[in-house]
Specification:
Layout: H1 3-9, H2 11-21, E1 39-41, E2 50-52, H3 58-69, H4 77-87, H5 91-106, H6 112-151, H7 160-194, H8 209-220, H9 226-229, H10 240-250, H11 259-273, H12 279-293
Helix pairs in contact: 5-6, 6-7, 8-11, 10-11
């Protein structure tokens, strides 16, 4: 038994070490990590692989993936993510890891450029999760249809067209019932969230809704002038996920929408309709900076 194993076998010493120095798990042990990302041992190359001079430990391995992601322009980030995603067998596991890892990194004190690239990666994860959900739904529908066909009379008792028609109708009815159950579950979840303390904010003019969403985006990105605080951001933690939560909980038009729909559709729409280079946006951005840092 190693010295570390002997020390950590004693609960009192283990807790004392944790309080004084923290715990790192196996992230400092070379080769002990989930291989979500493709890597090679060797000199650095400007392709999608990760490169290390020797077998990396977990923390370095995961950090290098996100460091390399930061090298790409926004338009090439999805290609980089797809390269690693396509090679990993457990697609759901990959997306789950990325979802939690990106969420944690968005809460760090990132530069504006790095923050935006993490948001692009987050949007890609949401898109892939929806794609997998659609694929799984189609597979379930096909499985139901095949099961219904297996239970129908043999071809000698009915012609193939009749069997196909019956199977299609029955599988559709079963699928519709599944949809009703899922919808009912979502409605019950919505009823639970409605019991929380929420706002009921409504605009007099709904044409201003996109401008309100854009205002939250500008507020989220407020940062100090470089000469004052090295472009320090106003918020330590504030992402599009938080904006979507605020809108859904407190603004009437968003209460019936799904969280990821608000993030992927409404927030994105506001950015497209009111671009960052819009003169009014630039004025408001400057005014917010002056308000907080003058």
């Amino acid at each position: 038994m190693s010295v570390k194993e002997r020390l950590f076998s004693n609960m009192f010493i283990r807790n004392m070490i944790s309080d004084l120095f923290g715990r790192s798990g196996n992230y400092q042990t070379p080769g002990i990590f989930s291989p979500y990302f493709q890597y090679k041992i060797g000199s650095y190359q400007s392709d999608h692989f990760l490169y290390f001079q020797k077998e990396p430990f977990g923390l370095r391995y995961y950090n290098e993936f996100f460091n390399k992601l930061n090298e790409y322009i926004p338009g090439h980030i999805p290609d980089y993510l797809e390269f690693h995603f396509s090679a990993y067998t457990d697609k759901q596991g990959f997306l789950r890891f990325m979802q939690h890892e990106i969420s944690g990194r968005l809460k760090l004190n990132n530069s504006k450029a790095r923050f935006q690239k993490l948001e692009i990666a987050q949007a890609w994860v949401l898109e892939k999760q929806q794609e997998l959900k659609s694929i799984q739904k189609a597979a379930v529908q096909q499985e139901i249809k095949q099961g219904v066909q297996d239970m129908l009379p043999a071809a000698s008792m009915a012609n193939p067209e009749e069997i196909e028609s019956i199977a299609q109708n029955l599988s559709q009815k079963i699928n519709d019932r599944i949809e009703e159950i899922l919808t009912g579950t979502e409605e019950r979840m919505l009823a639970i969230t409605d019991s929380f303390v929420t706002g009921n904010i409504e605009l007099n003019n709904q044409n201003h809704l996109n401008k309100v969403v854009k205002l939250f985006k500008l507020l989220k990105n407020v940062q100090a002038p470089t000469e004052k605080a090295r472009a320090e951001q106003l918020f330590r933690r504030f992402s599009d996920t938080d904006i979507a939560a605020i809108l859904r909980l407190h603004f009437e038009p968003f209460k019936s929408k799904q969280h990821n729909s608000i993030q992927k559709t409404d927030i994105k729409k506001a950015d497209e309709i009111i671009p960052d280079k819009n003169p009014n946006v630039l004025k408001l951005e400057a005014a917010l900076q002056e308000y907080f840092y003058s």
